[in-house]
Amino acid sequence: MIDNNEFAEIRKELKQSEEKREDTIRKSRDIIMLSKQIIYSAQRGDLNKAEALCAEIKKAVALLPKEYCGTDMESVAVQEYVEAVCFFEFVKNKKLMTRKELSADTENYLLGLCDLTGELVRQAVNAAINKRYEEALQIKDFVSEIYGEFLQFDLRGGQLRNKADSIKWNLKKLEDLALGISIKSPIELRSDKD
User: Whole domain around residue 14: which residue ranges?
Assistant: First the structure.
């Protein structure tokens, strides 16, 4: 008839799978929260705090399971991680981290970079408000470089294609900001460099 041991084993496997899924969701939420704290700290110039949080988030990402656990939360968490740590690295050192430096897979790395450009728009706007025009223009050039690289990909659809389009719109916002800066009187721009 029925092998009761077989069903007992299945119940055990399903329970373990659900526990692993819930653990992954919890870890992913923690990473997403840390990423927001990194960006918030870096935006406010608290680079020491942002750096400490970057060390913490790297450890948290390393604890995510490598295999699929029945949820896409770990993918979202890695994207947020890429966005936050790349934002911090740009604010601190004006460079873009690589997939290897982040230990991120290609798709999540690229998706994180798409989101990064939105944070860079905010950073550029804040820089312009505070009359740090060179910084705002540097951000525009940086996003333009990212956009140029994305244009060379053959993205055919899906989430990456949709998010990649956001880079174009973020670059447009930065170009409008740069135009506004260039229209300012030369006297104001010269006084910024003093």
Answer: 4-193
